[in-house]
Amino acid sequence: HVQLVESGGGSVQAGGSLRLSCVLSGYTISSRCMGWFRQAPGKEREGVALIDRNSPTSYADSVKGRFTISRDNAKNTLYMQLNNLRPEDTAMYYCVTSISGTWAGPNRWGRGTQVTVS
User: CA–CA separation, 110 vs 62, rounded Å?
Assistant: First the structure.
């Protein structure tokens, strides 16, 4: 049974920081591209950051220099450090896996963790 469980969201003031975590069970992440997406109320879900199997990363322009995605394959866990948060970062953040070592579209989704910036 595959599960992705996000945590670390919360309510912070603008300029604050959060660290999101996504623990996976049911399969190992070491061979897969992983990522974070987000969805704000009334908006479409958008990609925020990706990290390939060999750890090259990519970011949406809106978060470059502020967010950092990382992975710990030994812990089967994906992370994202969110710094200098802005009100426009308010959204539900979702962990996602792809089916290969580089991004090939979403395969599995978590249920999300809410980030609110005021």
Answer: 22
Q: Is 74 helix (H, G, I), strand (E, B) or coil?
A: helix
The pairs formed by 35-38 with CB atoms below 8 angstroms and a separation of 24 or more are 35/69, 35/95, 35/96, 35/97, 35/98, 35/103, 36/69, 36/78, 36/80, 36/93, 36/94, 36/95, 36/96, 37/93, 37/94, 37/96, 37/106, 38/89, 38/91, 38/92, 38/93, 38/94, 38/115
Query: What secondary structure letter does DSSP report for 75?
Result: G
Quick: pLDDT tens for 82-118: 999 999 999 999 999 998 999 999 999 999 999 999 9
Decide: 57 and 51 in contact? Cβ < 8 Å: yes
Tokens of 62: 């809106």
